[in-house]
Amino acid sequence: MGWSSAELHVLRGTSLTPAAWDVIVRVSVATSPDIAIAARHTATTETVDVIPQFGLDPGREYVVRIDASQIPTTTAATSRSSVPTVSRLTVPDRPVSAATQVTAIYPSAAVWPENILRFYLHFSQPMSGTSAVGHVRLVDDQGADIADALLEVDVDLWSGDYMRRTVFFDPGRVKRDIRPNREMGRALVAGRQCAIVVSREWRDSTGQSLGEEFRHAFTAGPAVEEGLQLSEWTLSQPSAGSRQDLTVQFPWPLDEGLLHRAVGVTLDDGTPVEGEVGVGPGERSWTFTPSAAWADRPHVVVVLTLLEDPSGNTVGEAFEFEMTERPATATTDRVTLPFRPR
């Protein structure tokens, strides 16, 4: 602040190089006052703004040196002293919070199918949104890295609140009879012990490292290579007039994330029934607690056909199929299971 309107007018109308700007306004680390930080300068109708190329460090002291006499117009600078103005400032430290932890991993079971495609990591606080590459590893029972197991993609696979990260196994190794699979085989082999390891060096949204390394040990199990068949699901029968849970049991674990948004309950006329959804241990069941008592009339469990298991098998269609035997593509986006409270 404190620039004259004439000075700001000149600065807005003059194309200055970064070096020329640094002569007029220089921000530097206090321990190296002669070296300007990398920054972009702009002049507004009231201020000169210095926008750092990299974030300023909390707790570090900076020096701001202003020499308005160096503005390249003598008229604007005539009233200015040739003595620069020097100020010091310190960026406040971020408040120290409890270290972020990995709170859950899905699948949560101790056995993962050898053809699993993805898993989810949940965190106690928002993360920085950086890639999982270098921070998440698959290791064998001796602790050695299993090379090229996870898909290394530098894309945003975070939930909107940055508290859940999706991590993919390399699908080229998972899917049978394509080149990576033929050359390297699957990263997981049924019967072998493995673990997912998350490095504590991964940083959260405040720049702090995780509180500790996270490890989830599991055994690779047989591949699951069949579509989801609702005829194999079992439903409990809650009592009419009660708010008992409706529970749907599955023959094998399904995708935890999709279970929260791909399954619901309606009346037989399509009216949605409000309530809370839960996912049972090992992701082998789904529960629904109605907000109001069950009506004594027919209901349906509605299942969107986008529902998958962790191996990519969807409703009625397996992830693995022979091209000559591919099942017919679903003609609807949902299927239903009828039930009636007792």
Q: What is the overall number of helices?
A: 6
Structural class computed from helices and strand pairing: mainly beta
The percentage of residues in β strands lies in: 25-35%
End-to-end gap = 74 Å
- What is the residue-mean pLDDT, rounded to a whole number? 91
Element string (H = helix, E = strand) = HHEEEEHEEEEEEHHEEEEHEEEEE
Oligomer: single chain
Largest sheet: 4 strands, mixed
Evaluate the radius of gyration: 30 Å
Instruction: Characterize the overall form.
Output: elongated
- The helix content is under 10%
Write down how many β-strands occur, each being a DSSP E stretch of 2 or more residues. 19
Strand order of the largest sheet: 7-12-11-9
Low-confidence stretches: none
Task: Please give a structural write-up.
By secondary structure, this protein is mainly beta. 10% of the residues lie in helices and 29% in strands. It is built from six helices and 19 strands. It has helices at residues 5-13, 18-24, 74-77, 171-174, 179-184, 256-259, and strands at residues 25-29, 39-43, 48-52, 61-66, 85-90, 102-106, 111-113, 118-123, 136-140, 164-168, 193-198, 214-221, 234-235, 246-249, 263-267, 275-279, 285-290, 299-304, 334-339. The strands form six sheets. It has a four-stranded mixed β-sheet with strand order 7-12-11-9, with no helix packed on it. Strand 16 (275-279) and strand 17 form a beta hairpin. The longest helix is centred in the N-terminal third of the chain and has 9 residues, at 5-13. It starts with a helix and ends with a strand. The mean pLDDT is 91.
